[in-house]
Amino acid sequence: MADLLEVSAAPATGVRATTRSTPGHLAIDLDVTELAVPIVRTIVRAHLKLWGLADLTDGTTFVVTELLTNVLRHVQPTLRTGMRNTQLTLTRLPGALNVCVRDFDPALPKPTRANDEAEHGRGLPLVMAFADDFGCSPFKGGKDVWATFLIGNNGTNGNPQARETS
Q1: Alpha-carbon distance 115 to 133, whole Å?
Q2: Ranges for the Histidine kinase/HSP90-like ATPase domain (predicted)?
């Protein structure tokens, strides 16, 4: 099991997170930092492998990276901690995997059309291309941004090219 969670050269400081895992459900409460994102990807990869969903790894880790990066770029740090508090959940459902990033900023994400020269603005359209479903659910004081990947032959399994040909 140690090889599933191996994080290469991860710094021992600068990442605060609490992880809870049960079969088919992973919840990570974290302060989003640039150091935290690759560590979270490693944890997500390990859980997908444990759940027999390794074929969803590329799409899921891409989406997790984009959604956490959006929190890092667009959510203001809390006054109390000076950090961007977030909860990431992965839930295996019958026939699907749901990824949800909860943050405490009520501003909803707005997909944009980036031109070829733009350095930003491609993330959400790419998330929408990788996922079989995508959405945002506001709540008082924040929002859940989620993506769903179908499991098996019916979905794209996180591969946007599969959508284009199906």
Answers
A1: 24
A2: 36-148
